[in-house]
Design goal:
The chain is mainly alpha-helical. The protein has one domain: Ribosomal Protein L9, domain 1 (3-Layer(aba) Sandwich). The chain contains 6 helices and 5 strands; from the N terminus they run H-E-E-E-E-H-E-H-H-H-H. Strands 4-1-5 form a 3-stranded antiparallel beta sheet. Strand 2 and strand 3 form a beta hairpin. Helix 2 packs parallel to helix 4 and helix 3 packs parallel to helix 5.
Length: 189
């Protein structure tokens, strides 16, 4: 979601992708490497054709050098995403998806679409899921009250997108509750 600079009080999508790059993912290495220590931990050894579990940032680095294939997570398949879309459009709540699914799927689609089965369909399904979830978020925000916001099941990207609006809305509601006879102007927040 493109926001004007004045509303960018949250982490940017590229920053969220960087945070998500610590998530572990399976790869099939094409090279042999011994166990290697990094600040975040030790990973390996890599022995083709055995799968290895490494952080996404290592998988991306190896993929760009053509030294591995990324094994997509189970949820990043046409069948799984179709099921999630059906649940999103038929149930009032949010379907179960990994907390960083938006960031992980974007990175994998950008870097390793050749490792996915039917990446174009996956992109379309992710877009449809995102639109359905955004609609539910907007509906939830419209029912906002001063005590709570019941939107459990949101992912990190979605939380980040609604944060500026939520903060501003809660500020206005708080001022209304404190002094209902003198409501604040919208530009006072």
């Amino acid at each position: 979601m493109a926001l004007p600079q004045s509303l960018r009080t949250s982490v940017t999508p590229p920053e969220l992708e960087l945070i998500a790059s610590e998530q572990l993912i399976d790869i099939v290495p094409l090279v042999t490497m011994e166990k290697t220590a990094f600040i975040s931990g030790a990973y390996g050894p890599l022995r083709p054709p055995a799968k290895a579990r490494v952080p996404l940032w290592i998988a991306v680095n190896l993929k760009l050098k053509r030294k591995c294939h990324i094994v997509p997570p189970e949820w990043l398949s046409v069948e799984s995403l179709q099921d999630k879309l059906t649940r999103e459009t038929s149930n009032p709540g949010f379907s179960e998806l990994p907390f960083r699914f938006a960031e992980i799927s974007k990175v994998i689609l950008d870097i390793a679409s050749d490792d996915l089965e039917n990446p174009d369909k996956i992109r379309t399904l992710l877009k449809d899921i995102r639109e359905a979830r955004q609609s539910k978020s907007r509906e939830g925000i419209s029912k906002l009250d001063h005590s709570e916001l019941g939107l459990s099941g949101l992912c990190s990207m979605e939380i980040n997108e609604i944060r500026p609006f939520f903060i501003k809305g809660m500020s206005v509601l708080t001022k209304l509750i404190r002094d209902p006879e003198h409501p604040p102007k919208l530009d006072e927040t």
